[in-house]
Amino acid sequence: MSLAVVGSIAFDSVRTPFGERERMLGGSAVHFALAASFFSEVHVVGPVGDDFGAEHVELLRSRGVDVADIERVAGGKTFFWRGHYEADLNVAHTDETQLGVFADFEPKLSEGSRNADLLFLGNIQPELQRRVRDECSARLAALDSMNLWIETTRDPLLAAVGEVDCLMLNDAEVRMLTREPNLARAARAVMEIGPRIVVAKRGEYGAVLFTPEGFFALPGFLLEDVRDPTGAGDSFAGGFLGYLDMQGTERPSEPALRRAMAYGTVLASFNVEEFGTERVARLTQEEVSERYQELRAMTHFELSE
Amino acid sequence: MSLAVVGSIAFDSVRTPFGERERMLGGSAVHFALAASFFSEVHVVGPVGDDFGAEHVELLRSRGVDVADIERVAGGKTFFWRGHYEADLNVAHTDETQLGVFADFEPKLSEGSRNADLLFLGNIQPELQRRVRDECSARLAALDSMNLWIETTRDPLLAAVGEVDCLMLNDAEVRMLTREPNLARAARAVMEIGPRIVVAKRGEYGAVLFTPEGFFALPGFLLEDVRDPTGAGDSFAGGFLGYLDMQGTERPSEPALRRAMAYGTVLASFNVEEFGTERVARLTQEEVSERYQELRAMTHFELSE
């Protein structure tokens, strides 16, 4: 079983009420890959510049991630994002974005990526997502996006959504994309475009899964220390799709999708405990298993005595 | 088993993106009593004016609610609230408040209320809450409040909180009251003041229960039609405490508290489907049971195959 991800590989400078960091390793493909690496073999597709250090590649490699499709662009600069969060960590502000090598990115996929069983199209231009989807034979493809693309490239985005099996967006973005204020109705509208699986992410409040069989909602894992939410959505996607890939079936069952939601929640919860990739980079399989069981205990109730 | 509630009995004029209503029956004590009436005998304590119609009293009576302590103040006017909600129904605005008979309210409790097994102190001035708590012999008392009292009467409110077993607030209010930005830490700070049970309500995102044993989180019930959130928190409290009262034990067990959270979620979900008390007024026991099971199905996952 294997998983390919295309998305940003970035340096993030982040300030939250709990501290700040300059030029940390980040980006959707990185957060996704580290999370998914607990379950499956991951191929990362994305460009970096000369400024991308060997230690960053080494971190990914140490987690078993295939870095063959990380393209180093001579003379280029790695994608850079600077942002900060309010006291309410659900509110993020972008202060600076430098596309760098991402401006002219042309995905080049090795055989490993093209033949991966699952594919995650991280939050990049919808046209690029479509091209990658087209090149890959994945039996299940999932797509993330953001308000920027919904506002500026709505039609290409809708076309890209129509070509995947699973859409993963923030709940507000699902509503924005479909122009439907009610989340359950919005998710149904997405299914009419194509995807049979819709995951609406709700930040600290958790996530909701919509399938033709119904819906499933999980609260976020409650933490006493949350330092930096950057990348939480991608870690969620990594846990979710990583677990599904490990299952290895063409059509994941409803119970498997629910467990995948739980693993997504677990990986996202570790992501936010520290800055950038700090926590997930030293995470162990045992910690993942332990928190998965804690999440079950935290959300479970019996109908009667 | 029986339950007493002190709180507002009101007329609400509400506008949402889905319609508007003038001078509907409302108020924290009314929403609470209707929800709790599915589980237990409820005594309502609160004042109304000459403008309060017999049909409103009759609605409560028809659900088995004891209305002996609804005090009719001659020449007075019933508490009135006018408000509206944004497209995002989580955002409410108050346009007008007329205290009416509530300005000089002096709670007078009959024996039935004084001897009730459980007590709910709805969102009114903390000093009034303390007086009622003092008069009642309830084995378990719960308290709701709001940002207004946290800002204007913080010390009396903290004293009132210190005298109850259970605090039920919106998550933002729990943080505001304790001046602790993290919810889990804020709930622990509340427990240090007195309550051994803390319920943080999160609107459409559900609620979290904190006890000395740990925490339990439930998402809100997903609905395709939400028309008016007014009173949802009080309906939640009514379902929660009504179920606990029905259990009849001095110290509710952890599993019982979790089921109470589920019943609170169920009653709140019916509340918001239509305006004011419209939906809950015609709700049946069968519908409550059915949705309770649906909520379990919607939130349940198995650790492994």
In short:
The first copy, chain A, is α/β, with parallel strands linked by helices and 305 residues long. Chain A is 40% helix and 24% strand. The termini of chain A are far apart.
How would you describe this protein?
The structure is a homodimer of 305-residue chains. With 305 residues, chain A is α/β, with parallel strands linked by helices. Chain A contains twelve helices and 13 strands. The first copy, chain A, has helices spanning 28-36, 54-62, 111-114, 126-135, 147-152, 154-162, 171-178, 183-193, 232-247, 254-273, 278-281, 285-299, and strands at 2-6, 10-16, 19-26, 41-48, 70-72, 79-85, 92-98, 118-121, 140-144, 166-170, 197-201, 207-211, 214-218. In chain A, the strands form two sheets. Chain A has a nine-stranded mixed beta sheet, with helices on both faces. In chain A, strands 3-2-6-7 form a four-stranded mixed beta sheet. The N and C termini of chain A lie far apart (42 Å). The relative contact order of chain A is 0.16. The mean pLDDT of chain A is 96.
